[in-house]
Design a protein that fits this description.
By secondary structure, this protein is an all-alpha fold. The protein contains eleven helices and no strands. The protein is globular and about 45 Å long. This is Molecular chaperone TorD family protein.
C-alpha cells in the first residue's frame, strides 16, 4: 500500500469535501489563506499545484464573497449553477434522491461512514469526498495487508462509480461561475484527489 499517498489523499479529500459542503470559514478559511499551509498541500499533481499556485497569488477571499459563491454554485436561488448531487445527472427526470442516492447510501452503510448531514441527500459531491477521506482512514488503520487491499478496492470502486462519473459536470459549473479564489481553485483540488485515488 502506498501509505504516504493514502494519508495525503485522506487529508485532501476531507478538505475538498468540506469546501463543497459549506463555504470555508474560521480555521479552514485561515488555512486556505496561509502560504505555509498552501505550500504544504498534500497532493503534488499538476492540477492540485496549479490550483495552489493560484491561491498563493490571490487576495484573501472575504467571508461574504465565499458565502455568496457557495450559495449560488451549490444551493441556488432557483437552481444551483453547479448541481452538487449525483442523481440529477443520471435520472431520467433530473430528480434528486433516486437509485443513485440509494446506492451511495448503501456504500456509506457498508464502510461505516456517517455523513452527519441529515438534511442533505447522500449523493452530494461533498459528502462523497468526505467518504473518500473516511475510506482512506479505514485503509490506513487496517490490521492486515489483505484488509488494506480490500479497503482500497472498495475506495477505488466507489470513486469510479460515483464522484468520478459526475465530478467534471459539477466542476464545469464551478469553473464557469465561481467568483472567489477558493472556489476557482476547487476544480483543480478536486481533480487532484480523483487522480490520487486512481493510483492507490
Amino acid at each position: 500500500m502506498h501509505t504516504e499517498l493514502v494519508e495525503r489523499c485522506h487529508i485532501a479529500a476531507d478538505i475538498v469535501g468540506q469546501i463543497f459542503l459549506d463555504e470555508p470559514q474560521g480555521p479552514l478559511l485561515d488555512a486556505l489563506s496561509d502560504p505555509s499551509f498552501l505550500q504544504s498541500w498534500p497532493l503534488e499533481d499538476d492540477a492540485s499545484q496549479q490550483a495552489i499556485n493560484a491561491l498563493l497569488e490571490a487576495e484573501r477571499d472575504t467571508a461574504e464573497a465565499l458565502q455568496r459563491d457557495h450559495l449560488y454554485l451549490f444551493i441556488g436561488v432557483s437552481s444551483p449553477l453547479a448541481q452538487p448531487y449525483e442523481s440529477p445527472y443520471f435520472s431520467k427526470d433530473g430528480l434528486v434522491m433516486d437509485e443513485d442516492a440509494a446506492a451511495v447510501a448503501a456504500v456509506y452503510h457498508q464502510v461505516g461512514f456517517d455523513p452527519g448531514a441529515d438534511n442533505l441527500p447522500p449523493d452530494h459531491i461533498g459528502l462523497e469526498f468526505r467518504c473518500i477521506s473516511h475510506m482512506c482512514a479505514l485503509a490506513l488503520s487496517a490490521s492486515s495487508e489483505a484488509d488494506q487491499a480490500a479497503a482500497l478496492a472498495v475506495l477505488r470502486s466507489f470513486t469510479a462509480e460515483h464522484p468520478a462519473r459526475f465530478a467534471e459536470q459539477v466542476l464545469g459549473g464551478v469553473e464557469k461561475h465561481a467568483n472567489t479564489a477558493i472556489y476557482r481553485a476547487l476544480p483543480g483540488l478536486t481533480r487532484g484527489v480523483l487522480a490520487a485515488v486512481e493510483t492507490l
